[in-house]
């Protein structure tokens, strides 16, 4: 295949470090189910796991990583720092943000090597305002300087948010990306700045109307693949880093079966034609209605 994608493919940050091109999403995976799902994913070839303080499952994710037996240095652990809830008057200082962020470290890296670290930490949401975002960003930058977070990024940030951030430039912007919500202006801006795009909800939360869309169904049949395979392959070929979530071993395995086919230019054109802009979002975060 022309782009030679494989499960081992990586993208390079502007910082020089690399991240796997396919991640395992863990939102909603808690308890023993979460531990077993993460462990299975890591054992079967996923090298990156994504979680968040908001998910309340960092400990389970860390247990799953440890249970997998995969060497810590071979894995990429990404989590998201949670800003104060909407409407809160809390305005944490950069030092407070750093201290809150550090609570994730022992939960996720249980290697007990004395050199625990997280590969990537992201600000989960651009609330509440420019001053708050600056403090949040400066807090993660402090953690990065201390060395226990290797790279830092953002999530759900639009162009205005990104332009207003102090240095350093984020390594990643994690946003909702799939054929119905392509956020093209933000994508183009991020690419121009060397910011990698992580795609959340790449499987549109298995929405019936999306999975039965005639265009996607036709392309899936053409390649003798499932609709999920087509959506994830589209994301990979767009240069995004999709992070599909699954709990069953069968689904976890199926979601990485993406490297024995390639979408051709006509397929990509037809999928690109499904874009509904912000109106196509399926998550609880509307890209058209974010904080100023």
From TrEMBL:
CDD domains: AKR_AKR1-5-like. Signal peptide: none annotated. GO terms for molecular function: oxidoreductase activity. Substrate binds at residue 124. Residues 82-101 are annotated as: Disordered. Gene3D superfamilies: NADP-dependent oxidoreductase domain. The active site is at residue 55. It comes from the Eukaryota. The record marks 80 as: Lowers pKa of active site Tyr. Residues 33-275 form the NADP-dependent oxidoreductase domain. Residues 88-101 have a biased composition (Basic and acidic residues). It holds the Pfam family Aldo_ket_red. This is NADP-dependent oxidoreductase domain-containing protein.
């Amino acid at each position: 295949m022309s782009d030679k994608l494989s499960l081992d493919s990586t993208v390079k940050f502007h910082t020089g470090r690399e991240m796997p091109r396919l991640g395992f999403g863990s939102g909603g995976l808690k308890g023993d189910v979460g531990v077993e799902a993460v462990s299975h994913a890591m054992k079967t070839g996923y090298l990156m796991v994504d979680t968040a303080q908001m998910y309340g499952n960092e400990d389970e994710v860390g247990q799953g990583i440890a249970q997998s037996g995969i060497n810590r240095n071979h894995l990429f652990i990404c989590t998201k720092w949670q800003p104060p809830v909407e409407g809160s008057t809390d305005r944490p200082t950069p030092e407070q943000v750093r201290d809150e962020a550090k609570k994730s470290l022992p939960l996720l890296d249980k290697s007990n090597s004395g050199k625990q670290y997280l590969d990537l930490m992201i600000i989960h949401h651009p609330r509440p305002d420019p001053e708050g975002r600056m403090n949040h960003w400066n807090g993660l930058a402090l953690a990065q300087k201390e060395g226990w977070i290797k790279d830092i990024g953002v999530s759900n940030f639009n162009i205005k948010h990104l332009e207003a951030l102090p240095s350093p430039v984020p390594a990643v912007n994690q946003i909702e990306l799939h054929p119905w919500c392509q956020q093209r202006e933000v994508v183009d801006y991020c690419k121009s700045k060397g910011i990698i795009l992580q795609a959340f909800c790449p499987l549109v939360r298995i929405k019936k109307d999306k999975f039965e869309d005639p265009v996607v169904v036709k392309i899936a049949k053409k390649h003798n693949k499932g609709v999920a395979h087509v959506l994830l392959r589209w994301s990979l070929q767009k240069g995004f880093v999709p992070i599909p979530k699954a709990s069953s071993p069968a689904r976890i395995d199926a979601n990485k079966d993406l490297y024995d086919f390639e979408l051709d230019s006509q397929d990509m054109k037809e999928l690109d034609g499904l874009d509904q802009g912000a109106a196509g979002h399926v998550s609880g975060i509307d890209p058209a209605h974010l904080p100023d």
